[in-house]
C-alpha cells in the first residue's frame, strides 16, 4: 500500500514573486514527490474546497464570509500578511479541505499526509501570520461532527508556537494541544497550549530530539486520542530565515520518525500536515518539506 497523499493544484495561488511567503513551495512539493516516485500524478487525493459550514465550525461566520468574498478588512489582511484576493481565499479553503481529507484517510489507512496545512496562527475570529483558516482545528471539528472521532491530539513541531490552535481548543478536554517552539520567536504573545515546550535559540538536533523523546510517547498514552494531527514544520532548520533552532535535515528526519513511530505503535491514526518553512531556496525548501512524506511512507 502506498502512503495516501493529499494535494490540490488550488494550493498554489499567484502572488508577487518576491513576497516573503514562499507560495511556490506547495506546487514544487508535489512535483518532487512525483519526480522521486513517492506518488504518481493520478494517485493524489484531491480535496476541492472546504464549504463555509465546515469553516464556521471554528471561525466566526463574518470572517469566513469576508475571506470567501475577498473582502477582508485591511487591518486583518495586514495581520495575515498575504494579499487577501480570491485565489488566496480559495487556496486556504482547499488546504483546509485537504487536512480534513488527510484525517479521513488516516482513520481508514492508519496514516496520511497533506502537501499543505498547519495554519496554526489562525484563531476563531481571524487569521494571522500567513494563516487564513486553521485547517487542523476545522478538520478535528468536522471529524467530531461526523462521529468519526471523539478525542484528538495536535503535535505541533513548527518553530512558532501554535497560538491559534491553542486558543480554539482552550478548555476543551477532548483535544490536547502540544507545541514545541522557539521561545523568542513569533508570536510575541503566546496562548497556552495544554503543554508548551518553549526552547532557547540555536538548540541543535540532539537536544531537540531528546525533548521530543521525553514527551511524545507519554502524551499519546495518557490522552488516548482517536487521531493525531502532526504539524511537521521545517522552519526549525538552521537555514530557515524565520527559524532559530539550528536543526539539520537529519534532525528533522529523526524528529518525524520518532513522532510517527510513537503514535503509530499505539495504533492511533496520524495525519501529517506541512507547517512552516521559509528557506529562500525554493528547491531546497520543497525537498525539506517532503521529509515528512518520505518518513511517513515507512509506516504504511
TrEMBL record:
CDD domains: HDAC_classIV (cd09993). Residues 19-286 form the Histone deacetylase domain. SUPFAM superfamilies: Arginase/deacetylase (SSF52768). InterPro entries: HDAC_classIV, HDACs, His_deacetylse_dom, His_deacetylse_dom_sf, Ureohydrolase_dom_sf. Keywords: Hydrolase. GO terms for biological process: epigenetic regulation of gene expression. Belongs to the histone deacetylase family. This is Histone deacetylase.
